[in-house]
C-alpha cells in the first residue's frame, strides 16, 4: 500500500484542538453524511436499540439523528469544545462528569442518557470502560488517524465491536504525493489488512 510521503506524517492532538479553536473544521458536515443515510440499513441490519460508536466524533449531527431513532450513541473526541458545541447546537441538556480511569478524561452525557461523549484520546478507551458496540460509523476517523497509528486504531476498533456488529467506513481516494493530509489516503488493500 503506497501512501507515499504521508507514511511519516503525524498530526498532534494540539493541532486538532487548534483546528477546533480556529473554526478550521471543513471536515464537519452540517446536514449529516449522505452515505450514512444511503447505507443505514446495512448498519442497522434490521435491528433496533443498538449501541453505535462514533470514533473521533467531533460534533457530528448524525449522533442526534441515530439517538432520536432509539439507538444509544457513544462518541469520543479530544476536543471538549466540539462535544459541548454538539449539545448546545442541538439544545440538548447534558451533564459532565470526570472519568476516573482516564487522567483528565471527561464524559458528557445527555440527560436522556442515550448520548455519551468522551473527551479524551481514543486510545484511552477500552471495552471494559465503554462496553462493546453493535455498530460503528467511521466517517472521518481512520482517515484522521496518523498513518503510523492505524494498526493500533484498528485493533482497538475490533476490540470494541460485538461479534455481529456492522462497521461503516468512509475513506477518500486521491494521490498521496499531491496532498499531505489529513484526511489521509488509506488504500483498500490496507483496509483489508487492518480489518480482514
From TrEMBL:
One of its GO terms (molecular function) is thiopurine S-methyltransferase activity. The keyword Methyltransferase applies. One of its GO terms (biological process) is methylation. This is thiopurine S-methyltransferase. Belongs to the class I-like SAM-binding methyltransferase superfamily. TPMT family. Keywords: Cytoplasm, Methyltransferase, S-adenosyl-L-methionine, Transferase. Its main location: cytoplasm.
